[in-house]
Design brief:
This is Metallo-beta-lactamase domain-containing protein. The structure is a single chain. This protein has one domain: Metallo-beta-lactamase, Chain A (4-Layer Sandwich). Helices cover about 25% and strands about 25% of the residues. It contains six helices and 15 strands.
Length: about 250
């Protein structure tokens, strides 16, 4: 009986060790999420566990969110709104960088907000399809109450209050991964990370649909943007990098 219990214990331990190994692969060498970091005077990074949400001031008491976080109760985001003297109805739009679960869990908390994503990721965000990455393709789609009210197209510009938001398609991490350029700040979601040394690196293999496509998309993005357009680059799981140079250097190598 003792031997059976030991074997059972080892079998239970394998998924735990696998999860630890995956966590190390995903986050080792990354820069820390800069909780509370102000971005060009109009946006703020808030840390929601292993992911971040970016809160953008759209003027006249309105805000726009880049993603909605990993917490279905939205405690961190709601606390940030309260700090500003605002409630959930102040959120006028949520711009999803992609449809993975840790980026869309808080959408249902803001019923008056438009929820936007590139068309290819709408089924993933709404729990009707799964991502095709080596890890996530094995998990069943899960409905987390996110409903996309406005599918987006590459190259369009959204006007939300006093914010002009440029939508840029960067497929690879998922087929509908998006970048958003707002007032000199480039929001890249999970399509890239910042290392502790301040370099930009491509999306992590285990949760990325197509790593080569991801790299090609980042290089194409560097060619599309003008250096003077980018003052800061923001990532969902890592630090903030200054200027266009990190993306330029990635593309060059």
């Amino acid at each position: 009986m003792k031997r059976v219990l030991k074997i059972a214990g080892l079998l239970l331990l394998i998924p735990v060790l696998g999860g630890v190994a995956l966590f190390v692969v995903m986050f080792a060498g990354n820069g820390e999420i800069p909780d509370g970091r102000e971005l060009e005077g109009f946006a703020r990074v808030v840390k929601d566990g292993h992911v971040s949400v970016d809160v953008l001031d759209a003027g006249e008491g309105a805000v726009v969110l880049i993603d909605s976080g990993n917490d279905s109760e939205g405690k961190i985001v709601l606390a940030e709104l309260k700090r500003r003297g605002l409630g959930p109805d102040a959120v006028k739009a949520i711009l999803l960088t992609h449809g993975h679960a840790d980026h869309i869990a808080g959408c249902h908390l803001f019923p008056k907000a438009e929820v936007m994503a590139l068309e290819a990721d709408v089924p993933i965000a709404e729990g009707k399809a799964r991502s095709n990455s080596p890890i996530l393709r094995h998990l069943p789609p899960t409905d987390r109450q996110a409903r996309v009210t406005r599918p987006l197209k590459d190259g369009e510009t959204i006007q939300m209050g006093n914010l002009s938001i440029r939508v840029l398609s960067i497929p690879g991490h998922t087929q509908g991964s998006a970048a958003y350029l707002v007032n000199g700040v480039l929001f890249l979601g999970d399509s890239a990370d910042a290392t502790k040394e301040g370099k930009l690196v491509s999306a992590k293999w285990p949760v990325t649909d197509d790593v080569e496509q991801n790299r090609a998309s980042l290089k194409a993005l560097a060619a599309k943007l003008k250096p003077e357009e980018v003052k800061q680059i923001v990532f969902s799981h890592t630090g903030v990098l200054p200027g266009f140079a990190p993306l330029r250097d990635f593309a060059a190598n």
